Amino acid sequence: MSARCWPKCTPATSGSARSDRSWAPTPVRACWAWRTRFQRLRPICWEPVSIRDDLDDARLTRAAQAGDRRALEQLLRLHHDQIHAICRRLAGNDADGQDATQEALIAIVRGLPRFHGRAKFSTWAYRVATNAALDELRRRGRRPVPTAIEASDRFAGTATADDSTAVVARLDFDAALAQLPEEFRAPVVLRDVAGCDYAEIGSILQIPAGTVRSRIARGRARLAETMRANGGNHHDAAERRNDEASNHE
User: Fold this and answer.
1) Which residue, 31, 25, 28, 20, is CA-closest to 10?
2) What region, left, alpha or beta, does residue 210 occupy, with left being phi > 0 and alpha being psi -120 to 50 degrees?
3) Are the C-beta atoms of 91 and 177 separated by less than 8 Å?
4) Is the pTM of this model over 0.90?
5) Contact criterion met (CB below 8 Å) for 133 and 91
6) Is the Cβ–Cβ distance between 242 and 220 less than 8 Å?
7) What letters, b where the CB count within 10 A reaches 16 and e where it falls short, cover 225-239?
8) Which domains occur in the chain, in start order?
9) How would you label 185-219 residue by residue, b for 16+ Cβ within 10 Å and e otherwise?
10) What SS3 class is residue 67?
11) pLDDT of 96-112, one tens digit each?
């Protein structure tokens, strides 16, 4: 793995108003650098967020803020999959999700010098990702549009019966998720896709934890109803998952 994929940084100059952010790459160069790097690294299975030590995030964050580019790369690698999952589900398709992911990564790099650590890094990063995905949809003036061809092409020629069932289930879920209003879609994605707890979702969306719980419950109910109305073959499984989740919350 190349140790020099990150764009070259310009040293801070004396008296510069931007000296605290001089180590950060420019948005355009950062975008292409990370697109190239993640295209190479995506086959690797990164360690799940749920078993990582938040203290490690804090250590990497401090090092990155001090100008350690390798710490910055590692920090972004560790959270890339979750950031992409959030953006992909909120945006509704791979193309828009990838665009939102790149915008989120750039915003995280540019905003890191101003991150003071009052919240966990993951909470802050997922808030940035959520805003990036929703901003992408607002700029285009539409709701997310799932594209069935993406999943079918990905498995063409190699799909087993189980793979095909999983693809259909995902497409049913994505189609139903795209029909949810934003106020329900965001908390459902953060809970059921990113695995955030209620307090963390409340911090990300800046709403009370009680409101988070209510919106997730209503969003899940609408998902099951929409999948049933659309004739999805997996609405019963969705309802069972919702029931199981409710029993553990």
Assistant:
1) 25
2) alpha
3) no
4) no
5) yes
6) yes
7) ebbeeeebebbeebb
8) 23-140 (1.10.1740.10), 149-247 (1.10.10.10)
9) bbbbbbbbebebebebbbbbbebeeeebbebbbbb
10) coil
11) 899 999 999 999 999 99
